[in-house]
Amino acid sequence: MSAINTRLEAVNQQIQHAIKKYHRDADSVSLLAVSKTRPAEEIALAVTAGQHRFGESYIQEALIKIDQLKALQIEWHFIGRIQGNKTRSIAENFDWVHSIDSVKQIKRLNEQRPKALPPLNICLQIKIDDEESKAGLSPEQAKCIIDEMAHYPRLLLRGFMTLPAPAENLEEQRQPFKTLRLLRDQLATEAMPLETLSMGMSDDLEAAIAEGSTLVRIGTAIFGPRNYPAK
Ligand SMILES: *Cc1c(COP(=O)(O)O)cnc(C)c1O
């Protein structure tokens, strides 16, 4: 058995543990394997082990791997910073985008999503802690976008994503996730349930599941430490 296989199984067990511990519904949390910086061979191994959702952050690197792995059944999620000139590649090659943080990105992705494909699933990235430098929309900006979604028929708004600053312990880790869940509860409507909460990474998976995450984005715990850091 490969190391990836073993680690993938361990992560799935961790998820199941947290689901039970926090009385979440079985199957209410999905695993997104974050494969940025990892070669296509490792992704193929994870597919063999039953993993089918993968997250990528760097578009050039992702496009090569998507092409190399096109024979496999993979759902591709874009989770990195979205540069203006890259929206077409994202619209044409991905199933989901988690890192939307401007109306301009929404307009471009809506225009560029090919008609032959189903609508692109999107999550709005929300800035929870008020750090100037960090990407993400304010709750007010998110509310405006939600009200305008009818103008973007090629996109399907699924929910919110957040990427909080690292915290010391479980209780502290839970705070931003709780804030995001409460915001979702406040802004969700029958027509727009915002059922997806994309939150939790290798180091704060339990806290995220405790607070209602439906999609955890896990890289290091599955593939090991990355060889080059996030740009
Ligand atoms: C890299 C990355 C992850 C995965 O982080 P790990 O700590 O390796 O699990 C999750 N989400 C985003 C947005 C990332 O860029």
Describe the 3D structure.
The structure is a single chain. The chain has 231 residues and is an alpha/beta fold. The protein has two domains: 1-57; 80-171 and 178-199, Alanine racemase (TIM Barrel, Alpha-Beta Barrel). 40% of the residues lie in helices and 16% in strands. It has nine helices and eight strands. The protein has helices spanning 3-21, 40-48, 59-68, 87-93, 103-112, 139-148, 170-187, 205-210, 220-223; strands at 30-34, 53-56, 75-78, 96-100, 120-125, 155-161, 196-198, 215-218. The chain has an eight-stranded parallel sheet. Helix 6 links the parallel strand 5 (120-125) and strand 6. Helix 4 (87-93) packs across helix 5 (103-112). The longest helix has 19 residues, at 3-21. The chain is globular and about 45 Å long. The two termini are 32 Å apart. The mean pLDDT is 95. Pyridoxal-5'-phosphate binds next to strand 8 and helix 9. Pyridoxal-5'-phosphate is lined by residues 34, 36, 57, 79, 163, 201-203, 217-221, 230.
